[in-house]
Structures are given as C-alpha cells and as structure tokens.
Specification:
This protein is an alpha+beta fold and 900 residues long. The protein contains 33 helices and 26 strands. The strands form 4 sheets. Strands 10, 11, 14, 15, 16, 17, 18, 19 and 20 form a 9-stranded mixed beta sheet that branches. The chain has an 8-stranded mixed beta sheet with strand order 8-26-25-24-9-21-23-22, with helices on both faces. Pfam families: Cation_ATPase, Cation_ATPase_C, Cation_ATPase_N, E1-E2_ATPase, Hydrolase_3.
C-alpha cells in the first residue's frame, strides 16, 4: 500500500517517524542521505557559450569566411582596399551578435528576479518542540505545521487537518481549491488523494499537521522540473529558414566565384588576379547587411510585441508565432480572469443574477439571511491596505463576501461567537454570530451536505416547511447550475435559543438559497478566438479542471460551437496509443480535461508529429515540460511560476489569450517583412555582381570597386532595409491560413523578382551610367584606366550613385510584392523616410566631400549624369508597377474562376 492509503499511525511508521518528530541526529543523517530540499536549477548553457553561439550561426560563419577571404586578398594583392572590407564584415558580425545576445540576456534578467516557488522557512516539530528551520533543511519523516497562506515546502501526508483547503493550480492546473483531510483513501493516484499536499502548492484556508515523505527532486514538483530539463529544445522555423537561406547564398556565391575563376583561366587572366576578383565576387554575392538588418528587425518586432503585452525571450520566436497552426491553451487565467465571481442565485423558486438582486431592494430585504450568510460565514482574513480592506483566503469565499457587500454595502458584520469548521467529510462550514435579536447560526456548503439538515425554506420572505416538491425544485436548480459549469453552494441559517446544545446546532435549519460561482471568461477572448478561426489556427483547451467546467467555458467563449465536441480526460488519455491520440487530434473541436504534466507534453509531441507548429500556454510547474517541448512556449507573466517562465519563449505580461493573437499577427508580419528586405537587399547584389562579370567577359574596366559595393551593403541601404523590416501588419494578414512549412523564405517568385527583374533593371542602369560617363570623356573600348584616373573615378561614382538612387525607388516598390505604390503610399513608415534621407546624405558625401572621395575612390559627377540616372529610376518604377498590375489581374481571374 502507498502512503496515502495507510492510516496516520502506519504512515508515520512507514517513514520511521513519530508524533513528536525526528531527533536532530536523525535529521542530520537523513539530510546527508537524501540531500537538501531543493529543486535543481534548469540546466542552461553557460553565458560565454551562449555568447559564442551568436557569432557561429551559419550566416555568421559565411561572413567570417568572407572576411577571411578579404584579408587574404589584401595579403595577396595589397592596395585593393580588401582589408577595409574584412574589418567592416567583422564589425558587422560582432555588432549583430552582441546586440542579439544583449536583447535576449536583458529579457532574461527581467524574469530572473523571482524563482521563489518554495518557501524559505517552515515550522517543523523536532524532538517534541516546534521550531523554524530553512525549508531546504527539511527531510523525509519531518512533521510540519501548516496554516492559511503557507506554501507547502515538500510532498506531505496529512496527519491532522482542520478546514484545510489547498490551491493545486501550480502543479495540477486545477483552478478551484481542494479540500484536504487526514484519513486514509483508496485512490490509486497519489496526486489526487485528499490526504496529500504537494510541494509548490498553497494552503488557502484551515490548519494542518503533516509528515514529509518526499523532498527536493523526488517531489512531484522536482519530477516536473526534471521533465522540463529533459525536454529537447525545438529549433524555430525562422532559424531553419535562415540556415536554408545561408546555405543557398553560400552555394550560389561559391558557384559564381568558381565559374569566374574558370572563365578567367579560359581567357588567360593571370591566376592570382583572377583569384582576387573571385574573392571580390564572393564578397559581393554575400549580403553582409542582411544579418544586422534581420537582428534589428526582430528586435523592433519584440518591442512592438512588448507594447501589446507579449515579452519575447528569444528573437527567432518572433517569427515562430506567425507560423503557428495550433495553440494549446490552458483555461484558468488565460481564457478566464482567474477570479471567482457569483454568476447566478436561486432564491425562493426563481433564478436571479446578483445585478438583478442589487436593483431590486425588495429581494434584498426578503432574502436578507442569504446575504448575511455570504457576508459572515467564512474563514477569511481581513487585511487593511491602501485605505481599504481586502480579504485573503479561499477565492470562492472572497467572491461571496464581495457579492453581499455589492448588493448592500450597509450590511454589518455581527461578532462571531463560535464556529463549526469546514471538514472534508462534512463539506460545510457553520459560524455563530451575535445578532441584535440574538445568536444566529449561518451555514454554507455543498448542497448534498446542507440540504438534508434543512426542515424549512424561505419563499418571498416567509418561512415554510421544506416538502418533497420544494426539495426536488432545489435539486433541479442545482443540476441546472452545475450543467452551466458553475460551482454550487447551498445556504441555510437558524436562530438559536439563549442556551443551545452545540452537538445539535446543525439541525432543523432553514434553507435560504443557492449560489453558483465561476471563473468568468475574459471579455476579449471571444473576439480573439474568432480571429484564430479566420486565420486558420486551431485552438485546443488543455486544463486540469473538470470536463463540465471546461466545456461550459469553451461554449461560452465560442471555442466549442457544436453539440458534440471531443472531450478527453487525463484518465482516458492514459489508455490512448500514440496513433489513437494523433487520430483524435483531427477532431474539429477538442478539449482535454484533468490532464497532468507528462500528458500535456505528450499532446504537444503528437501535434508536432502531425507537422503542426505548436504554441503552448501555461503558468504552473506542471506546464513547464510542454512549454519547452513546443515550438513556442508562452508563460503567464502575472500568475506564472518562475519555472514556467524559464521554460518559455514568450511571456504574456497581462496573462491574456487575446495578447497571443496580437503577437501572432506581429509574427506573421515579421516573415513578410523579412521577405521585403531580403528582396530589397538581393536586388543591389545583382547590380554589384554584373560589373565583375563585365570585367571578366568583356574586358572592360571594373565599374564598381569592392569597397564601394560594401558601402551599399553596410551603409546606404541599412536603414531603408530596416524600415522594410518594420512594416506594419497587412490588415488582411489574419484572414489567411498559416504559411506552409514547405514555403521557403526565398522562393522562386522572390528569386525571379529580385535577381532577374528588379536586379537586372538596376544592374543595366548602373552599367549604363558607368558607360555614359566614360563615353562623354572619350573613352574607347580596350583602353585601360588606372584606379586613380579622374575619369575612371567619376564613372565608378556614377555606377555607385545609380545603384543608390535606384534603391531609393526600390524601397517603396518592395513594400508590397503585389500592391501598387499608390496604395501602400510613400508615408506611414518613419524608418523608410529616415533611410531615404540617409541615402541622399550618403550620395552627397561620396560625391562632393574630400573624405568620401578619398575613402571610396570617388569623384563628383555632373548634372547630366543625375538626369540620366533619374530617367532609369522612372523606368524601373513604371515596369514594376506594370508587373504588379499583371499579377493582381491574374490573381483576380484565378479567384473568379474558383468562385471566390
């Protein structure tokens, strides 16, 4: 037999303890054997290792190789400014890595302040005397004293209990306090046993004495913490996409570079010269500005999300949200307010809401004993603070007191004379108060416990016999309220004689009504769920609460609309095979109730096997393994435990499900924005590549030097690219289904548009400007031009300036792949406006300042060149607008054929 199935004496004997506690010598021996009562910290990679990781992503490695090649090129052929390129690339890697690390570490610091789930001190009985000891010095066999408000320091078996109720939400996810008693039970599951209290939970009322049977990592708390550590981290879709993109860019750059090297050999270019230019091509093909732009775009997205109450811990999690196909959400505190409220009253023979009663003074007068019972029959502690009184204790009792005072704030509390405490087997509480007319007993509890004690009832203010018909009506009313997911309490009272027999106090009571309480749903949740349905995101409720309660809330908020949703309890789930669970998850509407930690993680793993991108919410210790196993774990910021926050990728600052939907909207925008600035960056990469190919194939002067190309990647285009990364979500973005996992960041549509359309137009314009200057200066084909020749410097300046001007136009074209500039507008994004101003300033600096001329090898160009460039910019604008119009027309025709 297990400890919860034993009697109190047998439970003590099984732990070799006594009613007077352990001796100090035995405590020391057990402390040495079992270790301190502490939960090991979640294993984290060392800080230095996490810092290094930021500099060793695949894209960072490509940049390191590019920098190395640049330094090698400078060593092989000094004077080509390759060292400047190398230093600039190293700076990009360091700044991006440090910024990313700082952002994530800063968020961690804001969450690391708490981690105090277990109490610091405990009252323990040793050698017959009660003493205060640090909680980490407790051992199995210790006997501890518990009272209202205490956090339970270890897993314990109760040996005495008086009105004990425990909030298990942090461990089991159940929202309502549970009654606890000292008697043995025949329950198989230890966690559900009524004589067991678990580490990390809280006593909400009563007093108890308990013997500890598990400490530290052996507690249920510790087992869940261990399960969290064992759960593998899931790479985010964005990390996978960036890795894929990095491989593509690396392969493309190397292939083009090798092709150049082979072609150079074929046209008799000296090997070392061809090799140096190969390095230049590889550097030109790698978009060095992509990494810092991506990092900053994600940081800006996290800041926008923080304003919408979603704190992102890891930058790639921003985009993961946008890929989400399933949200597994708990109920209490996320879908609901995590606050008990009186929803319905049954007075006389009629249902009323508390608001209706408040507005009807006659009802208040007729059923005054009902409200006095709610006001006075409780175990709450009244605390003064900030000029007003608050009540601490069972949330249901707090709700009843608040309801009574709200109905009539002039109700006065009479002095308490006596109390018959709440017990597990009694299921009720009775208090005796000195009223002006004499002593009065007020009683409340479970209807099945209170109703048999009643012989009379109140109807319209008159006391009448409680006959069989009246009892049947009361039971019917109770069932109707329970079907709505309400927690039902019965109220009764009795006027006492001057002298009374305490043993017969709870006899011949007057039944006065029923109260139905619930944790009401958040008002924003219904709209948030509607948005999820429009966006093709499936929402699954996973809760530790009773199936009836869960279903009632689900129906109220619109999560369940059919008459027959699929409801699976934790007990049923124990017998499900993995295949059966995966098939069950195909149900359109599904609720999991009474589930435990490993089952929640099992559901997440099953969804991942079905190729879903899974977001999971949670606040308790029991949620931590699932939070870590999911693609994105979402912890509650207000009610969330520190272990849950540690395991999560995102923290909801307001514990509100609606904030998740807002964050998903931002996350979806991130993917689209990355595509926007990726297109923008790749366009000028083509314009940077063509001069090298022209130099090789047609033996013309190099139209753009490596340092000039880098000035675009890491100078003129940085702020405008970042502006594209910070575009606001498209209003229609939440009316589309989640993107397919097979949909690549750089797809064929993007490649065609960036490389073969916009990039080609820009490259033609840049080369045209280069030859425009050369021809005006009388250059002839085959004529060599030294690097310091003023004509050559003017021509390269024209090429560089053309690319920058074309990119000014391109940034507005890239705000949408299909919508016209006339609909997206030129305003609405301050970063783009500032970026355009920056590009104009850079144009002036590189053309008309000695410093710019010296650093980049440029020379001022004349007005006729600017007119030539602007003409090409206008052509680019017209051609892209025409392409967008054709795409919109094709989509419209496709929709028309499909009857959309």
């Amino acid at each position: 037999m297990r400890i919860h199935q034993l009697s109190v004496l047998d439970a003590l004997a099984s732990l070799k303890s006594t009613a007077t506690g352990l001796s100090y010598a035995e405590v020391e021996r057990r402390l040495h054997e079992y270790g301190p009562n502490e939960v090991e910290k979640v294993v984290r990679k060392p800080l230095w290792l996490r810092l290094i990781k930021e500099f060793t992503t695949l894209f960072s490695l490509i940049l390191w190789i590019s920098a190395g090649l640049a330094f090698f090129g400078e060593w092989s052929d000094p004077g080509q400014d390759m060292a400047k390129i190398g230093y600039a690339i190293v700076t990009v890697i360091l700044v991006s890595g440090l910024f990313s690390f700082w952002q994530e570490h800063r968020v961690e610091q804001t969450l690391a302040a708490l981690r105090k789930l277990l109490p610091q001190q405990a009252q323990v009985l040793r050698e017959g005397k009660v003493t205060q000891v640090p909680a980490n010095r407790l051992v199995p066999g210790d006997i501890i004293h518990l009272e209202q408000g205490n956090k339970i320091p270890a897993d314990c078996r109760l040996i005495e209990a008086f009105g004990a109720r425990v909030n298990n939400a942090a461990v089991t996810g159940e929202s309502l306090p549970k009654m606890r008693g000292a008697g043995p039970t025949h329950t198989e599951n230890l966690v559900d046993s009524k004589n067991i209290v678990l580490a990390g939970t809280t006593m909400v009322s009563g007093q108890a004495k308990a013997v500890i049977f598990s400490t530290g990592m052996q507690t249920e708390f510790g087992k869940i913490a261990h399960l969290t550590q064992m759960a593998g981290e899931e790479a985010s879709p964005l990390r996978k996409e960036i890795a894929h993109l990095s491989r593509l860019i690396a392969i493309l750059a190397v292939m083009v570079g090798l092709l150049f090297l082979v072609l150079g050999w074929m046209v008799n270019i000296p090997f070392w010269k061809a090799f140096i230019f190969t390095i230049g091509i590889i550097v030109a093909m790698v978009p060095e500005g992509l990494l810092p732009t991506l990092t900053l775009a994600l940081v800006l997205a996290t800041q926008r999300m923080a304003k919408r109450n979603a704190l992102i811990r890891y930058l790639p999690s921003v985009e993961t949200l946008g890929s989400t196909t399933v949200i597994c959400t708990d109920k209490t505190g996320t879908l609901t307010l995590d606050k008990m409220v009186v929803r319905r009253l049954y007075l006389g023979k009629t249902f009323h809401s508390p608001i209706e009663v408040k507005e009807n003074k006659d009802l208040v007068e007729l059923y005054q004993p009902f409200f006095l019972t709610a006001l006075m029959c409780h175990d709450l502690k009244e605390v003064e603070g900030h000029g007003k009184s608050t009540f601490l204790g069972d949330p249901m009792e707090v709700a009843l007191v608040e309801m009574a005072l709200n109905v009539n704030a002039e109700f006065s509390v009479c002095p308490k004379l006596d109390e018959i405490p709440f017990e597990t087997d009694r299921m009720r509480l009775s208090t005796i108060h000195q009223a002006p007319e004499g002593a009065v007993l007020y009683c409340k509890g479970a209807p099945e416990s209170v109703l048999p004690l009643c012989q009379h009832t109140i109807t319209e203010g008159k006391i009448q016999p409680l006959d069989a018909e009246a009892k049947a009506n009361i039971i019917q009313a109770q069932d109707a309220m329970a079907q709505q997911g309400l927690r039902v309490l019965a109220f009764a009272y009795k006027k006492l004689a001057v002298s009374y027999d305490r043993k017969r106090l709870e006899e011949d009571l007057v039944f006065i009504g029923l109260a139905g309480l619930e944790d009401p749903p958040r008002p924003e949740v219904s709209e948030a769920l509607r948005k999820c349905q429009e966006a093709g995101i499936k929402v699954i409720m996973i809760t530790g609460d009773h199936p009836v309660t869960a279903t009632s809330i689900a129906e109220e908020i619109g999560l369940v609309k059919s008459d027959n949703p699929t409801i699976i309890t934790g007990e049923q789930l124990r017998w499900f095979s993995d295949v059966r669970l995966q098939l069950a998850l195909d149900a359109k509407e599904i609720i999991f109730a009474r589930v435990v930690a490993n089952q929640k993680m099992r559901i997440v793993e099953a969804l991942k096997k079905k190729k879903h991108i899974v977001a999971v919410t949670g606040d308790g210790i029991n949620d931590a393994p699932a939070l870590k196993a999911a693609h994105i774990g979402i912890a509650m910021g207000i009610t969330g435990t520190d272990i849950a926050k540690e395991a999560a990728d995102m923290v909801l600052l307001d514990d509100n499900f609606a904030s998740i939907v807002n964050a998903i909207e931002e996350g979806r925008a991130v993917f689209e924005n990355i595509r926007r600035f990726l297109t923008y960056v790749l366009v000028h990469n083509v314009a940077e590549l063509i001069p090298y190919l022209g130099f090789l194939l047609f033996k013309i002067p190099l139209a753009l030097t490596p340092i000039q190309a880098l000035s675009i990647d890491m100078g003129s285009d940085t702020l405008t690219a970042l502006g594209l990364g910070a575009e606001r979500p498209n209003p229609q973005i939440m009316r589309r289904p989640p993107r397919s996992q097979n949909e690549r960041l750089m797809n064929w549509s993007l490649v065609f548009r960036a490389y073969f359309f916009l990039g080609l137009i820009e490259a033609i314009a840049a080369m045209a400007a280069f030859f425009f200057v050369l021809n005006n200066a009388g250059w002839t084909y085959g004529q060599n031009l030294p690097n310091q020749d003023p004509v050559y410097m003017q021509a390269t300046t024209a090429c560089l300036s053309t690319i920058i001007v074309m990119q000014i136009v391109n940034v507005f074209l890239c705000r949408s792949a299909t919508r016209s500039v006339f609909s997206t507008g030129l305003s609405g994004n301050m970063l783009i406006i500032l970026g355009v101003i920056l590009e104009i300033v850079i144009l002036l600096l590189i053309n008309y300042t000695p410093w710019g001329n010296s650093f980049l090898g440029t020379a001022p160009i004349g007005n006729e060149v600017w007119e030539f460039v602007i003409l090409f910019a206008a052509v680019m604008f017209i051609l892209e607008e025409l392409r967008k119009w054709l795409v919109r027309k094709r989509l419209l025709n496709l929709a028309s054929r499909n009857g959309i």
